[in-house]
Automatic annotation (TrEMBL):
The keyword Glycoprotein does not apply. CDD domains: CGS_like. It comes from the Bacteria. Belongs to the trans-sulfuration enzymes family. PROSITE patterns: CYS_MET_METAB_PP. This is Methionine gamma-lyase.
Amino acid sequence: MSHNSDHAFRTRAVHAGHGLDPATGAHATPIYATSTFGYGSAERGARLFAGEEAGFFYSRLSNPTVRAFEEKVASLEGLPDAVAFASGMGAVSALCLTLLRPGDEVIFVAPLYGGTTGFLHEVAARFGVTVREAADEAAVEALSGPATRLIWVETPTNPALDIVDLARVARAAQACGALTVADNTFSTPALTRPAEHGIDLVMHSATKYLGGHGDAIGGVVAGSQDLLAELRGIGLRHVGAALGPFEAYLFLRGMKTLPLRMQAHCEGAQTLAEALAGHPALHALHYPGLPGHPGHAVAARQMSGFGGLVSLDLGSQGAAFTFLNHLRLFTQAVSLGDVESLSCHPGSTTHHLLGEKALRRQGVTPGLVRLSVGIEEPRDLVRDVLDALQHVQRAQFQTT
Ligand code: 3LM
């Protein structure tokens, strides 16, 4: 493929996984819409299935368009290999079903995306895995021990936007022989490359910033050759949530502009957060790029930008709903990382299955709103949010 690892990130975003199509010379990566590949002779078929010869033979296991996407992700994360899945949750479940055995323990730093927490508590726990929730890095150090197999983190976290110190978590894992997984969906490799901080496996909901245009669902895991051979052999082959070639094409196309989009997302989010700091309608404002954010120093060390999400606490679910209902540029929808701005109330949508106690414990308060800042002109977004906040203040004035 036409890149090498000495190239800068922006060059790799364009070139990694990209080469002229060997059959036709096509410059854009073709969508190989085929379930199966003829292998020509029975002997070659046997060699392919035995792993004695490399090649494509069935698209659940590998496909040239999907492979190009995997190569681009591996290159951007600075890891040897990647495996794609049909969704972020496909990646989460494949990882857990591949790596965990009865008796193992998983520690996660809360909050995580609600679906990931749900999988750990409702599926992994059914198979004799103990799931432990840690509030921070110190709790990870205290909870980890010989039975710990996996330590799972997101940074910034969904939706509280806490920052997790990746190097500290990696050290805790090394001390007890556990593996670490960082869900890098919110940062993307344009801002944080967890492997540089000692993390073993990096996963994404590619649905979000990697694709960037809100038109495809997918997931991906990057890591060492050995771990990914196991993940391909069990998590992909036997669990079977394979990414389709159409989606892989959209992700390849989207990722070429990932560094440019992330710059615009960060600029918009920083501008918005600064404009909102100290606003009287806000009970809390969470953005790691603000100097007062508790994770600001760690974020400044491990991220090259503070990301495109801003969370606001309006004090109550009623105020949060009033605010959301008056936004015009921020579409009310779950998901994030699209070029268009999106808004949601995590407590009743993305995280509602956690239940009230866990929601409060994990900082997902009733008044919390999550804004995914798109790449629109920041000034327009600020005006939109300030207008909606005025409606909240008016509604509060009328009821007092
Ligand atoms: C959401 N999140 O709106 P998929 N990891 C992270 C995520 O944010 C997500 C996944 C994994 C949202 C989706 S909620 C109904 C919509 C950090 C998804 C799972 O399987 O590709 O959706 O990824 O927060």
